[in-house]
Design a protein that fits this description.
- By secondary structure, the protein is an alpha+beta fold.
- The protein has 3 helices and 8 strands.
- Strands 1, 2, 3, 4, 5, 6, 7 and 8 form an 8-stranded mixed sheet that branches.
- The longest helix is centred in the N-terminal third of the chain and has 55 residues.
- The termini are far apart.
């Protein structure tokens, strides 16, 4: 610690007061800049999280309308899907399928799939993102199952694409969705 004794009437005292003022103004400016940078970073993070969730929404919309082209455009074909069925006797062996196989199977089907998530946790770091959320799933407007979705994303150029998806399939003890009854077509099926 340094102690500086300055005579109030001296030139050194005047210089000291000016330096003290400069330091205080500089500290205030730096703290304001840091707050602005923090807010800017937060805003950028929020934009990226919203962009990732929009991919989930578009994927669910493509599923509900059986739009194979829109569905496949959102996925990285070389990646994987993993389905884990959870029943009364525990977890069954997980089912693994490439996104390319998933797209082909989707193209063959005719059923209308409606999936909804709520309270998503979204994590983003550079070109990687994860969404974790409880969900419910309906086939042709009839409840099928619930569970938890875990979606991984990769930013390719300026666009987020789903790289991997894992989910549980639970047919028992599904709590009622906080989103209420399913809407057949239209409306916000993705988030609360």
């Amino acid at each position: 610690m340094c102690l500086l004794l300055v005579d109030e009437g001296s030139t050194a005292s005047y210089t000291f007061r000016i330096m003290k003022t400069i330091v205080v103004v500089g500290l205030l400016a730096c703290s304001g800049l840091a707050a602005a940078q923090s807010q800017s970073t937060s805003t950028a993070d929020d934009r990226e999280k919203a962009a990732v969730l929009s991919v989930v929404t578009r994927m669910f919309d493509a599923m509900a309308t059986r739009d194979v082209q829109a569905y496949s455009a959102l996925l990285v074909p070389e990646a994987m899907t993993i389905r884990v069925k959870v029943g009364p006797h525990g977890t069954e062996v997980p089912r693994f399928r490439s996104n390319a196989d998933d797209i082909a199977k989707f193209a063959e089907g005719t059923d209308v799939w409606q999936e909804r998530i709520w309270d998503p946790t979204v994590l983003v770091h550079s070109p990687l993102a994860i969404v974790w959320a409880p969900y419910d799933f309906h086939i042709n407007g009839v409840f099928s199952h619930c569970g938890v979705d875990v979606f991984e994303f990769l930013k390719v150029g300026d666009a987020w694409r789903m790289s991997n998806a894992s989910w549980t399939v639970e047919t028992e003890k599904c709590p009622p969705s906080p989103l209420g009854p399913i809407k057949r077509q239209g409306g916000d099926r993705n988030r609360k």
